[in-house]
Amino acid sequence: MTKVLVIDPKIAGMSGDMFVSSLLALTNSYDLMDELILELEKLNNCNSFKVSVMDEKVNGISAKQLKIEIDEERIKNPDELKEIIINTSKNLMSEKGVKICENIINDLIEAEKKLHGDHFHLHEISSLDTVFDIVLPVLILEKNGFLDGKIYSTPPSLGNGRISMDHGIIPSPAPSTLEILCKHEIKCSKVDSEFELLTPTGAAILSNVTDEFTDSYPEIVLLKTAYGAGTKRMEHVPNVLRLVEGKTDEKIIEKTVILETNIDDISSEILAYAVERLLNEGAPDVFITPVFGKKNRPSSMISVICPYHVHEKFAKILIEETGTLGVRINHYDKIRAKRRMEKLTLDINGVNFGFDVKISDLNGEIVNIKPEFEDLKKIAKNLNIPLRDVLRHANNKIKEIYGF
């Protein structure tokens, strides 16, 4: 089973505290919250940090809402805030989680710097509340296995109206929110509201924990829902963030597209360059098939296999490079086994070499193990021996370790 989390800020945006409260509602990870509070209260600038999690009804929906009371000295500069977040997260989670926390605060600081120059004040994010909002959700995601699964998000709603900031009153969304969305090229949704719905912290967290943005829910088995409430209330829209936990089988079903176009009026050099560019831009598979086109002219059909969510990018490249007037789009469901990489060590002629193996398994059963040939080529060149000899050693090592 692969864990899946769907974040749904299309309803009413997202803030840091809404994400925290919805995660607490989903996972009951109050022990992790207590661990983080103990870490925060060890800081020199924190006298006390108290959090209450309340049950609220928001337009008829049961949700959790946070109330935070902090006695603190505000953080003075960006470097200090970043140091606190990194050091606090290091005490609680893995290197992967720490890196996500660092990326989140980097997005917030870079957005402020771009707007106000190198010498700026933290203003809205100068409180330990920001540390709490960044570190706790990543900690909960990691400890509950979501960082090892897949996290989706719907396009976030931004909100309207005006917001009061230290720099004055400005139309929603906040400038920092827009900077972060632009950096990550995130699509947004429209909801009629006179409030700010997506905050800068919410945007930064969403951008860095989400694996894939999707207009609709993925094809998963749905297990559990939870809601976190914001502080404001709207007449027709519940101000909540919805989370949905799900699972997939070890076999992963992907929405896949095959793009096709027939070409009969460009040189082989141009065609070869088009294939090269498609592969360099990340297309998983590109191939050319000889066909007969209009008036029985010999032609080439160029095909690109790619995930659905990036097919527009590769269709654009096809049109740019070949001058074709149209690209056919064929939709398919692709089932693939779960894959992981592991590193093994070879001893050849008394010298140790590391190489990666790609392991594919289906429902917990290994179906294939392949050595990474780029690693084997380097070993062959280093020892000046045939590649097939290195491959034999690698396969023997795989059989010794995995019995496969």
UniProtKB/TrEMBL annotation:
One Pfam family linked to the record: Ni_insertion
Xref: PANTHER family: NICKEL INSERTION PROTEIN-RELATED (PTHR36566), PYRIDINIUM-3,5-BISTHIOCARBOXYLIC ACID MONONUCLEOTIDE NICKEL INSERTION PROTEIN (PTHR36566:SF1)
Protein name: Nickel insertion protein
Organism from which the protein derives: Methanococcus maripaludis (strain DSM 14266 / JCM 13030 / NBRC 101832 / S2 / LL)
Keyword Protease: no
Keyword Plastid set for record: no
Alphabetical UniProt keywords: Nickel
NCBIfam families: nickel pincer cofactor biosynthesis protein LarC (TIGR00299)
Lineage: Archaea, Methanobacteriati, Methanobacteriota, Methanomada group, Methanococci
